Amino acid sequence: MKLLYIHQHFATPKGAAGIRSYQMARRMIERGHRVTMVCGRGTDGQTGLSGPFRSGLRRGSVEGIDVIEVDLAYSNRDNFLKRTRTFLAFMFRTCRLVFTEDYDVLFATTTPLTVGLPGILGRWLRRKPFVFEVRDLWPELPRAMGVIRNPLVLGAMSLLEFASYRSAHRLIGLSPGIVDGIARRGVARQRIAFVPNGCDLDIFSPDEAPRQPPGVRDDDLMAIFAGAHGLANGLDKVLDAAAALRRNGRDDIRIVLVGNGMCKPALMARAAEEGLDNVVFLDPVRKTELAGLLRRADVGLQVLANVPAFYFGTSPNKFFDYLAVGLPVLNNYPGWLAGLIGEADCGIAVPPDDPEAFAAALCAFADDRERTLRQGRNARRLAETEFPREVLADRWADWVEGAGKKAGAR
């Protein structure tokens, strides 16, 4: 089977972005299929290709994956208007490839939602099986966050969402809330598979050598956040907690924020202005380097803005990276991840918008290191039993192969 795989933010382990699509594509190749990956040029992720672009494209093989990289740079530091232009430009370039590439099954994964249009065209105009993977519910999330208010834009996005869901032969949701959201749009449950993000147990091995970041002492409790610094991440609440730690005289806890995003300059300026030297900012690092930072850390921070749509509608890469390396997790919003943490006793979940509770949880981790270590072991056990990447990749591949077989693709 030949799979055309569309993911604008594709990255390999050489980059700093999530590698779900890389791992899924590799599993399809291991099962005897051919994969063509269509992606954009991200600043924080590495596609594995080098060399010049010709007519806005470059193409090459990356570990058996045929990669087509569109010369459209994207960064989570970009403002909303620039992101929108990039998403639309990628959509139009990809629509053309849908008609020129040779494939049996078309697979598209969000974000952005605009990758649904190439899937719709492939389904109805080329009569190819279409599998649509949903990582975030759009336009539900941007509407809930207030990022998009224009009713015409929201209406157009809602129409594209509906058309993408109804056109797809099969769908994949990365969280229980996403699966429910797809079903609410009238899609039969038997057409939707739940395949969450997974744990890369080989990359994030507990045997990885620790990497000590600057500004962190050997005996400090180190709490780490590794991800985008955007509006959705709500990292201002982490700085609120850091200020609470300062007020309470706790100088034995350091918070390390790794990544980039449009909010990072403002966060750094606030930390400097308020003298929050218990917060350390680091640039994004590739996955292999991140493993060393996580090995030095004592706690992983799973932080989002207090938006109810996030509670059951996200499946963050960073959460599963923390589990893989054996870090207990401090989570600041309710939902399915908070439930997992409680059931597995692998961390602490605190109420949203409560910096004192957040700071108290960090103090609890620092004051009871035995409990912290035990919860870390529980986190690794959860990674090994419920979320190993190879098991989830096979579940994903079975679902995608099934779409091809049902339509007679070979």
Structure, explained:
The protein is α/β, with parallel strands linked by helices and 410 residues long. The chain folds into 2 domains: 2-198 and 388-406, Rossmann fold, CATH 3.40.50; 221-386, 3-Layer(aba) Sandwich (Rossmann fold), CATH 3.40.50. The protein has 15 helices and 14 strands. It has helices at residues 20-30, 80-100, 116-124, 140-145, 151-167, 176-184, 236-247, 264-273, 287-296, 308-313, 317-325, 336-344, 355-367, 369-386, 389-406, and strands at 2-6, 34-42, 57-62, 65-74, 105-109, 130-134, 170-173, 192-194, 221-226, 253-258, 279-282, 299-302, 329-331, 347-349. The strands form 2 sheets. An 8-stranded mixed sheet has the order 3-4-2-1-5-6-7-8, with helices on both faces. α1 crosses α15 (389-406) and α3 crosses α5. The chain is globular, with a radius of gyration of 21 Å. The termini are close together. The relative contact order is 0.13.
